[in-house]
Specification:
Oligomer: single chain
Distance between the termini: 8 Å
Largest sheet: 18 strands, mixed
Radius of gyration: 19 Å
Shape: globular
Length: about 290
Amino acid sequence: MPQRAIKYAVVDAFTAEAFKGNPAAVCLLEENAEVDKKWMLSVAKEFNTPITAFLSRHVSDAHDDDSPWFRIWWCTPAVEVNLCGHGTVAATHFLFTSDLVKHDIINFVANIGTVTAKKISKADFTLKDGDEKFFVELDFPVVPMVEGDVLKTSLHETLNGVSVVSFQKTSAGDLLIELSSGKEVAMLQPNFEEIKKCEERAVIVTGPAPAGSEFDFFTRVFCPKFGFDEDHVCGSVHCALAPLWKKKLNKQSFTSFMASPRSGVLYVELDEKSQRVRIRGEAVTVMLGTLLV
């Protein structure tokens, strides 16, 4: 691809505080851009954040509404992925705060189809410079469980012997493990070399929040196959977590705590009828610049 200047931002997603949550780089390409996947992976490796999101305004006569449309791709430092929650929050936050869109809803055309993001205002809270603070709300499809055998003996070794309530596999290719408590989730020190040997792409570990907590459950996500050991705050795994915790807690709205060292908070709502999950969180821009490629 010829050399050009590409505007980028680094955004911490699912947090109201810089250097918390999950960082993502966001690169704004030209309108209706044709992309080279090898080039995108090289850029993602250069940023070395858990996700780099690439955006291109998608102009088509097929779009019959007034809301903006963007093509979106997500890459880890090692692979392209089909869906990323924190990367979408970061991309949406970047578009809104850069004044690139005037509408409160953005449609993203991704490899899996169309996903939407919505700006939810917090009218009672403003930043020091007077700018309104807001949530980003994602609308993602439920990720169901699938049947399959799990090698529990090796997984106990992978998790260094914590007390496991259940093992399940998701249709996204992840292993979902429920522990007896959120405290165990937070204190867990997994064996990443053993996790790499699992046939699943990532290991999700979740458990109930402590009594009296403002949260409903704790979660961590381990994914060394993606080029980094832990996904600090993962939005998309809540597409599988929401149905699980609905059955266990008999409720459809949750406050989720990602218990990684960076930590993050997500507000999750399950719509059983439509089989959709709404995921809401904040974000903070920590870097702006120009990529010369």
